[in-house]
Amino acid sequence: MVHLLLGVIYLAFISLGLPDSLLGSAWPSMYGAFGVPVSYAGIISMIISAGTIVSSLNSDRLTSRLGPGRVTACSVALTALALFGFSVSGQFWMLCLWAVPYGLGAGSVDAALNNYVALHYASRHMSWLHCMWGVGTLVGPNLISYALAGGQGWEMGYRTISLMQLALTAVLVFSLPLWKRQGAAGEEEAAAHEVLTLRQAAHLPGAKSAVLAFFCYCALEQTAGLWAASYLVLHGGFSAEKAAAMAALFYIGITAGRALCGFMTGALGDVRMIRLGQAVILAGAAALLLPFAFAMQAGFVLVGLGCAPIYPSIIHATPARFGAARSQALIGLEMAGAYVGTLLMPPLFGLIAEHITTSLLPLYLLAILAVMFAMNEHANRVTGLVRPAKPARERA
């Protein structure tokens, strides 16, 4: 039964990734049909992000009342409805309307699933599950491409993924009895936990630092992914076609890196995996500063590989930092911080690129990395996950 439930959770993580890459891949075919500027994709993206932030902040209450299985099933069903709504929308305002349940469906399930896995499974599964999210992000654009190539339009791509989400909802409903596992580490404490208000969760020792570290991670990941191709074209002098192919290596690095990290995290632990990822990002950003084509290409691969262990390791470390009884509230808060990072920081670099130069991308990434490192280490010390080093005289 344990392995069967784990398989269901793996499917759920694929479903999390399926909608995330749809808008970007379908928008070149969508905006002309709706008669709106290409920049209007940002409006839809911001509505989705806002909904995700709201549902993440309320995930503790929802999961406490309904349980992680029901929250996951309801959220996937809500996403399926929103995707179908996209596929039948005839005007831009309809897309904005359906973007609300699109975002609300994503935040709660993300927080609930991550917390459940952090409490009940080894850290290697967290890495592999987030690898499955990467698989989902790769499948979505291919389905859109297949629908367009077949002359069926982007609508059929959205409709197909909506039906896939609906089928997964049925699987999740039938799997609800499997979520009632007994005897797992931390389960008794988690079952007896008191729902925390946002103020209470934010004032826990180390909470603000942990949220800021997650904010920085997602800001770095999304900024690198969004602006990689532009950096290669405007700063590296590559053609748009070659730059697009090279920028895709960043996402391949994340997905492949998470598959690899699953074999390493048991031996190294969450703290060391986060530090290792940050060191690899540092090497990748430094490579981007070099005026060589190979160095730039390797730089984005390294940044992707460095990103791979950080997200799953921060999530998996949350119960150890704050206790199983508080982990759902803290993961919801961390998720909200992550989505705020994705909402604000990539557009901020867009302003820098427009008014100064895109060549500042590596320095921008390094600045975010420095803050992330400082905040993560502070959270480790305050929560007791890492003990401060003793002075030399005291050790003697």
UniProtKB/TrEMBL annotation:
GO cellular component, one term: plasma membrane
Domain of life: Bacteria
A Pfam family it matches: MFS_1
Topological type in the membrane: Multi-pass membrane protein
Principal place of residence: membrane
Alphabetical keyword list: Membrane, Transmembrane, Transmembrane helix, Transport
Subcellular location(s) of the protein: Cell membrane
SUPFAM superfamilies noted in UniProt: MFS general substrate transporter
InterPro entries: MFS (IPR011701), MFS_dom (IPR020846), MFS_trans_sf (IPR036259), MFS_Transporter (IPR051788)
GO molecular function: transmembrane transporter activity
Annotated Major facilitator superfamily (MFS) profile domain residues: 5-379
Residue intervals passing through the bilayer: 34-57, 69-86, 92-116, 128-149, 161-179, 209-231, 243-261, 273-294, 355-375
Family from the record: Belongs to the major facilitator superfamily.
Name the record gives this protein: MFS transporter
